[in-house]
């Protein structure tokens, strides 16, 4: 019986974690550990190598190492590419909402020359350089230090009384059945209000999130105007989303 895309995705994530913990490993050993055929592991590793997350040679695989003290993290490179693309859609004078997503936050790095009104529940924006004419509005609310997030009714109410020209949000899943989802309960209502009060909604999510379902639904698929993802995302899901009228942008990384 064919495995679901989610099972394949999860196994590949587990392979990465295994390699990070154990270092260089033989294909045969991975096959035994994950209780699948060597052919299956070879396919998984070929895909991970194509994505720049591992190297493989003569049946030996390992994760990329840090080079000259700098992290060579392909996933971070993907997120940065998504952030850069999302920033292209923001114009001078726009009112922009972002949530606490690291990818959405990274878009601000590419808006230093753009004057905007930024509204967010993300305390991390205070550390980012902005255009001198930009205005930064923090939602208020209870601080959750683990994510530098403002949460609670005050934060929700702030977004309830505002409307954006454009919003850039990250999420934990975009699925045809469950819609846009997050795993963070404390931010679910805030994200829903951001979506509700957005004139144009851009969702940024890497290949891992496409077709994935997280615990809490924050919006419908139909709420998305533009979905920005990478070239490794599930093509079947993207095709179905495109047929629903969503603009799909895949960045090449």
UniProtKB/TrEMBL annotation:
Coiled coil: none annotated. This is HTH deoR-type domain-containing protein. Keywords: Transcription, Transcription regulation. PROSITE patterns: HTH_DEOR_2. GO terms for molecular function: DNA-binding transcription factor activity. Residues 8-63 form the HTH deoR-type domain. It comes from Enterococcus columbae DSM 7374 = ATCC 51263. InterPro entries: Carb_Metab_HTH_regulators, DeoR-like_C, DeoR_HTH, NagB/RpiA_transferase-like, WH-like_DNA-bd_sf, WH_DNA-bd_sf. The lineage of its organism: Bacteria, Bacillati, Bacillota, Bacilli, Lactobacillales. It holds the Pfam family HTH_DeoR. It comes from the Bacteria.
């Amino acid at each position: 019986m064919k495995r679901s895309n989610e099972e394949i995705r999860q196994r590949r994530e587990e392979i990465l974690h295994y390699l990070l913990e154990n270092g260089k490993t033989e294909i045969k050993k991975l096959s035994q550990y994950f209780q699948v055929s060597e052919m299956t592991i070879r396919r998984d590793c070929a895909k991970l190598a194509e994505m720049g997350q591992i190297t493989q040679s003569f049946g030996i695989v390992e994760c990329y190492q840090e080079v000259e003290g700098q992290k060579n993290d392909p996933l971070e490179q993907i997120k940065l590419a998504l952030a850069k693309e999302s920033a292209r859609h923001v114009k001078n004078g726009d009112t922009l909402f972002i949530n606490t997503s690291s990818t959405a936050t990274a878009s601000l790095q590419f808006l230093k020359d753009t004057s905007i009104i930024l509204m967010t529940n993300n305390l991390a924006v205070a550390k980012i350089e902005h255009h001198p004419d930009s205005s930064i509005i923090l939602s208020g609310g209870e601080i959750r230090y683990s994510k530098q997030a403002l949460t609670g009714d005050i934060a929700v109410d702030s977004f309830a009384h505002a409307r954006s020209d454009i919003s850039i949000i990250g999420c934990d899943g975009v699925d045809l059945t469950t819609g846009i989802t997050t795993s963070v309960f404390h931010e679910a209502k805030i994200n829903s209000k951001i979506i509700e009060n957005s004139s144009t909604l851009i969702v940024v999510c890497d290949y891992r999130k496409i077709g994935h379902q997280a615990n809490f639904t924050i919006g419908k698929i139909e709420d998305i105007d533009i979905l920005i993802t990478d070239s490794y995302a599930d093509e079947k899901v993207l095709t179905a989303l495109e047929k629903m009228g969503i603009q799909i942008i895949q960045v090449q990384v």
